[in-house]
Amino acid sequence: MERSLLARIMDFLVLAAFLGIAGFLAFFFTALSGGDRFYWWLIAVITVAAVLFVGIGIFAKVRERLLFKTAIGLLIASGLTVAGYEGFQYYEASIPVVSEQDFDLQAYKPFREGTKAKALERPASLSLKRDLPRLDGATALYPLYAAFAQAVYPKSDYDLYYSEVMANTTPDAYQNLIDGKVDIIFAAGPSDEQLEAAKEKGVELKLTPIGREAFVFFVNAANPVKGLTTEQIRDVYAGRITDWAEVGGKPGPIRAFQRPKNSGSQTMLEKIMGSEPPMPAPEEDIATGMGGIISKTADYKNYENAIGYSFLYFATEMVQNGNIRLLEIDGVMPDKDAIRNRTYPFAAEFYAVTAGSDNPNVGRFLEWIVSAEGQSLVEKTGYIPIADGK
């Protein structure tokens, strides 16, 4: 005897509520554990499909055999979807990444046994025993100012994040300097936002040039494009040039990576762009400890259609990724000779930046850095001494 419509509705509501609660719990715990958004949506789709499946089974006159086959088909489709997603994730993970995690800064710590930080051939003319200037700076410049500290500071274990010789990246270093937590930072010139932050705090930033470096663009080594013009760089990062075929490459969309806001390299890109801001950067979702999702600027991932940028020393000495190739700019390859003679268009000074510290040794230390001894460490490390860049 066929059950009444009311009874079937009640059965559907009970089962739908059960499936909805189960789906919500699965969704919640997946999100809480930091699971990929893909699985969030998969759980939601499966939950909705299950509810629809139950509804069809209760209200429509469908053979049980057909329902069983449909359920098996849905399970197989879900399994294939997961397999395809995980396969793509594995492929993505196999593509080399250029980021600040590609190397170990510990290898450049001053006084560490076997340190990569360069050393003078004889003791430095300056030796500081107390009132050590607190140092911070850009990741790519840590090998240089670690060498300065090794030459002048007393032997000690200088922690990378909690000592007189730290490496907190350009944005954090500028903030630490503005807040008075450090005395000198080593970085590219400040961004407009960093200058404004200093002004609001009543702090005047003083930039002492200590060397020169090239700002470089790089692509996958398999990319046939050997170089771009300055105007083409601007057009790529403004979104006007979007396909490699437009600049002599193989047809395919250009994936233009960027660096985080207020980093030294991002500030350099913005200076190249002039009054025109770069287009929005590729982002990636990062799961936080409580399962939330934040978005951050994606690190350069070496797809065959990718383009990225950094500074020459970072890209060639610290990362040493053989899968990327530097681009010529306006027909000039970025190398030390081109930096010295200023034929490479994106060569610029980097600085020791101060903000009115009352530490009596800040001035002495800066004078030593621009002396022949300090500048010899600039050259030994792999940068161009400021005297050679004049």
From TrEMBL:
Keywords: Lipoprotein, Membrane, Palmitate, Phosphate transport, Signal, Transmembrane, Transmembrane helix, Transport. It holds the Pfam family PBP_like_2. It comes from the Bacteria. InterPro entries: PBP_domain, Phosphate_ABC_transporter. It is found in: Cell membrane. SUPFAM superfamilies: Periplasmic binding protein-like II. The chain crosses the membrane at residues 12-32, 38-59, 66-85. The keyword Flavoprotein does not apply. It is a lipid-anchor. Signal peptide: none annotated. Residues 135-373 form the PBP domain. The complex is composed of two ATP-binding proteins (PstB), two transmembrane proteins (PstC and PstA) and a solute-binding protein (PstS). Belongs to the PstS family. Part of the ABC transporter complex PstSACB involved in phosphate import. This is Substrate-binding domain-containing protein.
